[in-house]
Structures are given as structure tokens and as C-alpha cells.
């Protein structure tokens, strides 16, 4: 009897992590920056476009980024109570 080969091998699937671009609005904390991300939304009834902004606390290991810098960051494991994001180098 021949061994049965399972075509469905368990492989580590790459998780899709969220990425955002934004502008640094605060760099006062050590190894943490606050990044503001703006997105354009459309009203469901009136179809008017409007800007919505949200702030994220992002981990900056080297304190390299300062107010006004444009950064790209990605989701990661929780680093503190509020930080779940890190800079993409």
C-alpha cells in the first residue's frame, strides 16, 4: 500500500498587516511619535467628500523623526497600552 500524501500542508501564511502614511504631529515622548493620518470619505446620502483625520501612537526606536516629517508605519504586536504601530525603515 502506498502512503497517502496530504496536499494541504501546514505552512505559515503571511498575515496582511495594515500600513498608513501620515505626518508627525508630536515627538515629545521617548521612542514614541504621534502621527496624524487623513483620509477622504464620501457621505452616503449627499455624496459630498470630506476629510477625516485620526492620530496613532507609533514606536520610533531611534527618535529619528520630528514634527512635520512624513512617515510610513505598519501594524505590529502591542508595545504598550496605546502603541500598536511601528515605523517602516
Automatic annotation (TrEMBL):
Keywords: Ribonucleoprotein, Ribosomal protein, RNA-binding, rRNA-binding
Keyword Ribonucleoprotein: yes
Protein family according to the UniProt entry: Belongs to the universal ribosomal protein uS17 family.
Pfam families in alphabetical order: Ribosomal_S17
GO cellular component, one term: cytosolic small ribosomal subunit
InterPro entries for this protein: NA-bd_OB-fold (IPR012340), Ribosomal_uS17 (IPR000266), Ribosomal_uS17_bact/chlr (IPR019984)
The name this protein goes by in its record: Small ribosomal subunit protein uS17
Chain's role: One of the primary rRNA binding proteins, it binds specifically to the 5'-end of 16S ribosomal RNA.
Subunit structure as annotated in this protein's UniProt entry: Part of the 30S ribosomal subunit.
Biological process, per Gene Ontology: translation
GO molecular function, one term: structural constituent of ribosome
Domain of life from the UniProt record: Bacteria
HAMAP family with a match to the protein in the record: Ribosomal_uS17_B
Species, as recorded: Candidatus Falkowbacteria bacterium CG10_big_fil_rev_8_21_14_0_10_37_18
NCBIfam families recorded: PRK05610.1 (NF004123), uS17_bact (TIGR03635)
Amino acid at each position: 500500500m502506498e502512503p497517502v500524501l496530504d496536499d494541504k500542508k501546514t505552512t505559515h501564511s503571511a498575515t496582511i498587516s495594515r500600513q498608513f502614511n501620515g505626518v508627525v504631529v508630536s515627538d515629545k515622548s521617548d521612542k514614541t511619535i504621534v502621527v496624524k493620518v487623513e483620509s477622504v470619505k464620501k457621505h452616503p446620502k449627499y455624496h459630498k467628500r470630506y476629510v477625516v483625520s485620526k492620530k496613532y501612537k507609533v514606536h520610533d526606536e531611534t527618535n529619528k523623526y520630528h514634527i512635520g516629517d512624513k512617515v510610513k508605519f505598519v501594524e505590529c504586536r502591542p508595545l504598550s497600552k496605546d502603541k500598536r504601530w511601528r515605523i517602516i525603515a
